Amino acid sequence: MPWIQIKLNATAETAEAIGDMLMDDAGALSVTFLDAKDTPVFEPMPGETRLWGETDIVALYDAETDMDAVMSILKASTLLVEGFAHKIEQLEDKDWERAWMDNFKPMRFGQRLWVCPSWCDAPDPDAVNIMLDPGLAFGTGTHPTTSLCLEWLDGLDLNGKTVIDFGCGSGILSLAALLLGAKKVIGIDIDPQALQASKDNAERNGVSDRLELFLPKDQPENLQAEVVVANILAGPLRELSPVIKSLMAPQGKLAMSGVLEAQAESVADCYRDELAVNEIIVKEEWCRITAEKA
């Protein structure tokens, strides 16, 4: 079916509230946040004001939606400045699922780990195989950021350890940790669809009994783990650094990605006050930052 999407720019302070408004008040079917510095999604039209915030918001609607009504809701909001930049466009009506399935093939990460589409046979039945169907959530292993995190997990001894997957998406990193021996994984994501995708993939791989999933507002207090992985974006990694550091148990290990090489030092600097930051690893302009807690 055809779709319409609207793109807006927001500041770090307003992005989540605007996203909630688009979903709750303006009827969006889904809302996606992009790092505006990494992935500029539009140029403002004459007379429009770009907020030059850190986050671009993309909201998806059924093609029959009255977008004038949506715009009326946005223009009445105090979260956006008058004449704010926006772009409304129709998406091509094509079989996106089939196109995606045709390009997603089994992939190996590190020495032990394979990620395989749920509709394929595992190339090495004796390896650690993640059977994955990402559904509506990000994370197949094809992006360098996910690949970097999978390779890091493959190199750890996770036996008996608790892992926190901060921004779990499809659950690919959670599944990898569990299949590599973790005692328990706690997945956290702001998107309920991501939690559902993680749950479905965990059931498909027979590890749902060791995976706990939470929205940030519902996660347990004083939560900590020996291993924390956060594959999100540079802006949230900087802004949420106190939260992410608090999730690490003493002598805990942390891996972060979703960071471009030019952003790596500014992200790492937000963690050096409490953590020992290791060498930053670069893959296709994207980075993995790892650190340890004393």
Automatic annotation (TrEMBL):
Top-level division of the source organism's lineage: Bacteria
Record keywords, A-Z: Cytoplasm, Methyltransferase, Ribonucleoprotein, Ribosomal protein, S-adenosyl-L-methionine, Transferase
Biological process, per Gene Ontology: methylation
Family as reported in the entry's similarity comment: Belongs to the methyltransferase superfamily. PrmA family.
Protein name per its UniProtKB record: Ribosomal protein L11 methyltransferase
E.C. numbers: 2.1.1.-
Organism: Enterovibrio norvegicus FF-454
Known role: Methylates ribosomal protein L11.
Pfam families xrefs: PrmA
Presence of keyword GTP-binding: no
Signal sequence, renumbered to the chain: none
Positions contributing to S-adenosyl-L-methionine binding: 146, 167, 189, 231
PANTHER family from the UniProt entry: ELECTRON TRANSFER FLAVOPROTEIN BETA SUBUNIT LYSINE METHYLTRANSFERASE (PTHR43648)
Keyword DNA damage in record: no
Locations listed in the record: Cytoplasm
CDD domains linked to this entry: AdoMet_MTases
GO cellular component assignments: cytosol; ribosome
Main localization (coarse): cytoplasm
Molecular function (Gene Ontology), one example: protein-lysine N-methyltransferase activity
Reactions this protein catalyses: L-lysyl-[protein] + 3 S-adenosyl-L-methionine = N(6),N(6),N(6)-trimethyl-L-lysyl-[protein] + 3 S-adenosyl-L-homocysteine + 3 H(+)
Name of the coding gene: prmA
